[in-house]
Amino acid sequence: xxxxxxxxxxxxxxxxxxxxxxxxxxxxxxxxxxxxxxxxxxxxxxxxxxxxxxxxxxxxxxxxxxxxxxxxxxxxxxxxxxxxxxxxxxxxxxxxxxxxxxxxxxxxxxxxxxxxxxxxxxxxxxxxxxxxxxxxxxxxxxxxxxxxxxxxxxxxxxxxxxxxxxxxxxxxxxxxxxxxxxxxxxxxxxxxxxxxxxxxxxxxxxxxxxxxxxxxxxxxxxxxxxxxxxxxxxxxxxxxxxxxxxxxxxxxxxxxxxxxxxxxxxxxxxxxxxxxxxxxxxxxxxxxxxxxxxxxxxxxxxxxxxxxxxxxxxxxxxxxxxxxxxxxxxxxxxxxxxxxxxxxxxxxxxxxxxxxxxxxxxxxxxxxxxxxxxxxxxxxxxxxxxxxxxxxxxxxxxxxxxxxxxxxxxxxxxxxxxxxxxxxxxxxxxxxxxxxxxxxxxxxxxxxxxxxxxxxxxxxxxxxxxxxxxxxxxxxxxxxxxxxxxxxxxxxxxxxxxxxxxxxxxxxxxxxxxxxxxxxxxxxxxxxxxxxxxxxxxxxxxxxxxxxxxxxxxxxxxxxxxxxxxxxxxxxxxxxxxxxxxxxxxxxxxxxxxxxxxxxxxxxxxxxxxxxxxxxxxxxxxxxxxxxxxxxxxxxxxxxxxxxxxxxxxxxxxxxxxxxxxxxxxxxxxxxxxxxxxxxxxxxxxxxxxxxxxxxxxxxxxxxxxxxxxxxxxxxxxxxxxxxxxxxxxxxxxxxxxxxxxxxxxxxxxxxxxxxxxxxxxxxxxxxxxxxxxxxxxxxxxxxxxxxxxxxxxxxxxxxxxxxxxxxxxxxxxxxxxxxxxxxxxxxxxxxxxxxxxxxxxxxxxxxxxxxxxxxxxxxxxxxxxxxxxxxxxxxxxxxxxxxxxxxxxxxxxxxxxxxxxxxxxxxxxxxxxxxxxxxxxxxxxxxxxxxxxxxxxxxxxxxxxxxxxxxx
Length: 953
Fold this sequence. Notes:
The protein is an alpha/beta fold and 953 residues long. 45% of the residues lie in helices and 16% in strands. The protein is built from 35 helices and 31 strands. The longest helix is centred in the C-terminal third of the chain and has 24 residues, at 805-828. Strands 11-9-10-7-6-17 form a 6-stranded mixed β-sheet. The protein has a 5-stranded parallel β-sheet with strand order 2-1-24-25-20, with helices on both faces. The chain has a 4-stranded antiparallel β-sheet with strand order 4-3-19-21.
């Protein structure tokens, strides 16, 4: 029977669907009532499923299948996240006929032209990609999902659940309303969150200090605010820069005239300043003017500079050349460009007269630290890449160890780190400073709009509440964090999380219960939906109007939580209590900084400790032929296409054994093709055993060796699966054991009845080990072999009776001897007629016995050896032998050394002489050193226990 994955896999999909194989209910509880609840972030269907998503959902499926074979009742559900605006934005772009959007839909995701009309409503769009991409893709991959429990976050019943969650948090004082910086899309004119972003997902808010420089214009004072992250450097400002060609405005800002870039005026308006623009000018308006420093009252010259980004902060930049390498180089370049200065009416002599003003002392950097930083690196141009590193290093050292000079009065002598915040607040209170927020990098919304920082009167979650943080940290402390090095990332996120705006002006999702003008944003409505899975299918029988606050209080907190508990809620509580808590959540590594930590926060507050998350496994990023996948660029592989070409088992197996879950992986067609070929060979080998006689349990040495190696593989794969190390597990079960089988086939006649019996036992065990990874192939073969699908057979356990360290040691020695002979043949380029093998003399074995007893302490070994007069006479020969044998046993455990001490080397090699003769097509002669051994090559004396000497003739 040939391996036809498409035909085979379709049969199993139909069988699973017809029997409801993965529908999990409490009534199905196995003996012992063990449960495993596994979740993964539900997809956001604003586009199609690609191969990166396939890996995201296949990794938890492997663990789910493994736990079922371990006897657990396993729940692995799936839902659909449609909250927010990305789907709405995609629909709008489709309706406008945007060429790029149409290309993605038709060319990348194969949406038929006649179907596009059905996608012109948000839920029509979502439903298409749910049904035609994600769900089909997941089913094609063989994901063992309980599909009865699926829902979308726009469902009425789910919204009732979210309403309960937010009313509860509000009543507990963990929701507040107030001004707060938010990510704001200037196109959609509403707040957005990380999941809405096309670029800048990792951008952070930066609080700039606006130093209120000023100048006279038409007889009135105009403020020219300059943004800085280093307000303490204000005493060192020597000049300022502006882009002469950019657009600026003179505006009334909170009753004062301000001169800022046009973009800054809009940002300030969004950040709760009262802004009215009444004149637009070019940056050249300010070039050549002097502006007054509000702290020193010195007037500094404004110079033209193309490097100023008018879209960043206020578009006017102050210069501190003594402490900023960037500013130092820029000033030198300005001094050298007299022609440009004259073109703007600036006297070059005035520029030449500008000198750096030091404001702090720092060891090893001299009076002008920026000059030392620049000159020590040989930097001569602002284009030099080394300038960024020089700036970063100097800023860091000044912050932690720079002592302020006497001009700072009460702050003199103090370190920047200790006084920056006080200094800023003091001068903000005095009116010399203001505040403005900016992002650390450019941020773009999925709709294509620019995203800026805005301050809005909004409802926010109080993640800064210390009691809430403390409870959440207790979850982190007690849960299984995989890999372990991520545990600190959760704690770090908990520490820095502050207030989180949880609403937006419009979009899909649940309305804020007490202010229905707003919608709860995507990251905030996806924190405890795992609990909804446990009852989602049964809630369909409950009228929506019955899903009140009291209903969910009863469901999650019990009859004592309300005055009149609903009986249906109490029934549902039994199922929720049966499944909860979540044993493992599999998710992306980059979600630790938001979704995953929010998940922990909300569970810490809304549920009791026994129902807190038990573990999180993070996953890395997928590449395609070495490059990041991108739906918008069409650089993706669709699961359906890959499955059609290679088969689902091949796709799964490649995704699972190319990297551990938390590592990045790279989809490469040639490597996927190789996996397909390897599965084909596996199938064919298995068919030979299925179709042939069963054999008999008449075991020889090499059969016992293979069965012993199988036990080590079972142990290794099980340990890896317990740690979600899917690559290690699949590699050991498949590739690692294939090495053993190759050796076995070389060593024996596989048509022997004992060999056929052994190989069938091995195949059956390996099929069960591989069942989570390649369920279609393994189910089919296991059923052919035993009458039962592999997934219905228990997970293999180590059979202690089959573990034979002595047999493994003997076989390892034979394999090593074979490799040594082959190496000699290769180096000497000979075709051997005779291979002579010399086993070490008995006295050398006596020395080994001492080493085995004393361990790798050379002194202790020599002390015992020298008590034997016969050995003492051998002098230096014994000294060298002891050193060699200590190296042989070093690092081995006691069981291994004991097996070596008991091994009869001569008997082991004697059993293998026929094999060696066949391997090298030569006569094989076996001798013991010193026992009248025929030794024409004078090689016998080189023999050491477990390292026989070899002579090739």
